[in-house]
Design goal:
About 40% of the residues lie in helices and about 15% in strands. It has 14 helices and 13 strands. The strands form 2 sheets. The chain has a 7-stranded parallel sheet with strand order 3-2-1-4-5-6-7, with helices on both faces. Strands 10-9-8-11-12-13 form a 6-stranded parallel sheet, covered by helices on one side. Strand 5, helix 5 and strand 6 form a beta-alpha-beta unit. Helix 1 packs across helix 7, helix 3 packs across helix 4 and helix 4 packs parallel to helix 5. The N and C termini lie close together (about 10 Å). It binds uridine-diphosphate-N-acetylglucosamine. Uridine-diphosphate-N-acetylglucosamine binds next to helix 1, helix 5 and helix 10.
Amino acid sequence: MKLVSIVGARPQFIKLKPISEQLSKTKHNHIIVHSGQHYDFNMSDVFFEGLKIPEPDFNLEVGSGSHADQTGKMLIKIEEVLFQTKPDWVLVYGDTNSTLAGAVAASKINIPVVHIEAGLRSFNRSMPEELNRVVTDHVSNVLFAPTEMAMRHLQKEGLAGNSFLVGDVMADLLFSILDSNTDSTEIQRDSYLVSTIHRASNTDDQAQLSRIIKGLATIGTKVLLIAHPRLSAAIKKFNIKLESDNIEICEPLGYLQMVNLIKHSMGVITDSGGLQKDAFLVGAPCITLRTETEWPETFEGNMNVLDPFAENLTDLIRREVTNPTGRPFGDGNAARKIIEILENNPLGKLT
Ligand code: UD1
């Protein structure tokens, strides 16, 4: 099989890793296309280097822009690559503008599209990610759902016939990192919190961002605020003062460093989907700065709670939690199952 993976934003490099590793054990031809949506060293290269992912075969260098500008440039350039490479499958990951562009470009020239992390829904259409998810699922030919709930959403939207429940590729990677850590001593939780904020609804609204920063400043514990470029730009633009020595702003981190940091933290305060799951899987309590989550499985044991306006951070971070017993994100073999299903050609079209 010839497969083209289209990635471009930070969480997609993490999702790509288990697929790329699985494919490297086969004779299949795997071509990696980087849209260039994320281009800073610590938003992109650090993941390829740190996770030992092969360098992209194509970098489209699309960069930042409005939704239409960024997505439109990607569409044009991805189509060119697809005409040149003629793959059997195009793999798209998650919910970013790179996902949408890859899915639309391939489906319109009748190349089968595989959506990894299909069926997630926030039911909030003001989020660009939700629009990207819905469109991508509906133009994809094969849908790989990470959770039972995602599978139910796909069924309700009439997509069950092409959908497979395989588990979450991000959990594959996290489990392998935790397994390779031979340190058997009980985890010591240090007295700091880890926070990330990058959703447009939090960073692009001055009142909302000021509220969150104030909430973090008054929490009474050191907060390591790992700042996405969108957040750093917003703090500068709105001239938001940190008001407290409690907040330490840090540059974005590689994935292994991030996992290690949250594993030893008192907890996580975030609007990132990936981090909610990472916190759940390493047993760190999480507060999610959103009105809803696509990952409600993380509510088990009170491990995750929503606080959209950062009103109760001080109390919520000290709440009682119970470590979860189930494995809602699968058994760490999602990537293997995905490749096996594709090898059996679910569309019956490949020779
Ligand atoms: C994107 C995804 C989001 C995902 C996130 C992970 C969409 C619509 N959103 O959001 O779902 O959770 O990636 O990080 O695709 N910037 C830099 N350097 C970079 C990348 C971005 O400076 O390497 C700055 C630019 O000013 C840019 C802004 O960050 O305008 C936003 O970047 P963009 O890729 O548009 O969206 P994200 O907020 O990263």
